[in-house]
Write a structure and sequence with these properties.
The protein is mainly α. The protein has one domain. The chain contains 12 helices and 4 strands. It has a two-stranded antiparallel ribbon. A two-stranded antiparallel ribbon has the order 3-4. About 8% of the residues have low confidence.
């Protein structure tokens, strides 16, 4: 198992919450009009302005993928020239904009922006594990709302396939995704879930070796020198504390399944005659299957190894969609 059981469950739970919150918010954001028996979906204005009208949504995945590649290249330029401060301000801008879009679905846009700015400043300049992960739940909802008017079901499928292949190559072959994750973690500005913890499994193994190798000597020390026994116990406690680690899940691993599920929800409303509530309930299935896929990856993966999550999460997306079709 890559992480301890309770950390694995925490990551899976936050991931599920982010998917559910995202789907509920997107469902609230969409405006459904039925004119002469034909269902149309309108997208309200956001902080970014009026959503653009895209005629050929089927090919929009190409532009989205190119944007991702350009953004990744830009970050590596910052890494190369050691421009960590510029990365922080760029990240702050993205956080504030996406949070404001998410909050703006429920509250006044100005209040949403002020709240997003406060949380963004805390997230970037006064890192707090609770604020960090709380904002992650809403950030990718904002990303989804911004992308949703540009994409249809076919394009969403293609985007899943492309991003899964890219993720696998970036982690297993070029390994630049690992470097990117390490840079973000070291700069304390990480796009994705981040949970620091102490892994006691390694400490327990070391402690077991001490017991095996020095059991006879420990008994003698216990009988002849109580003070020495106390010192040995103190050393044992230090070992059992375990190694400090970070459990991370990249922001893309949260965003892309949410985008896919939201597009499915939109498709069910627009072309399958579902009500908003019925479509929302159906797409919850995708949130569950992707969470199971992620949990399985974390459970069966090996410690201290990097794995691309998107191929597994994408499999969960496709499985969830298949179940929606069957039901």
């Amino acid at each position: 198992m890559k992480h301890t059981l309770h950390i694995t469950l925490i990551i899976a739970a936050i991931f599920l919450v982010s998917q559910v919150v995202g789907l509920v918010t997107v469902n609230q954001y969409l405006i459904v009009d039925i004119i002469d028996g034909e269902t149309n979906i309108d997208y309200p204005e956001t902080l970014l302005g009026e959503p653009p009208e895209v005629e050929k949504k089927t090919f929009s995945f190409i532009y989205i993928m190119l944007t991702i590649l350009v953004g990744t290249a830009f970050i590596f330029v910052l890494i190369h020239f050691k421009l960590g401060k510029l990365w922080k301000y760029w990240f702050l801008f993205a956080v504030v904009m996406t949070l404001a879009i998410s909050f703006g679905v429920y509250i006044n846009p100005f209040i949403a922006f002020v709240l997003a700015l406060i949380l963004g400043l805390i997230k970037v300049f006064k890192p707090n594990i609770f604020v960090h992960n709380f904002t992650e739940v809403f950030i990718y909802t904002g990303v989804t709302i911004a992308i949703l008017p540009l994409i249809n079901l076919v394009s969403a499928f293609m985007l899943l396939l492309l991003i899964s292949g890219y993720d696998a190559i970036a982690v297993w072959k070029s390994k630049h995704m690992i470097k990117l994750a390490e840079f973000q973690t070291e700069s304390k500005v990480f796009a994705g879930l981040l949970i620091p913890y102490k892994d006691k499994r390694e400490g327990e193994i070391k402690d077991a070796k001490v017991k095996t190798a020095k059991v006879a000597q420990a008994k003698k020390v216990a009988n002849l020198a109580p003070a020495a026994k106390s010192k040995n116990s103190e050393t044992k406690k230090k070992i059992v504390k375990g190694k400090a680690k970070n459990a991370i899940l990249g922001g893309g691993d949260i965003a892309f399944p949410l985008i896919f599920a939201s597009v499915v929800m939109q498709h069910l409303i627009e072309f399958e005659g579902y009500s908003k509530l019925a479509a929302l309930n159906s797409t919850f299935i995708i949130a569950v299957t992707t969470t199971i896929a992620l949990a399985a990856l974390l459970f069966f993966s090996k410690e201290d190894r990097f794995y691309p999550a998107m191929p597994f999460i994408s499999a969960g997306c496709i499985l969830g969609y298949a179940i929606v079709l069957l039901l």
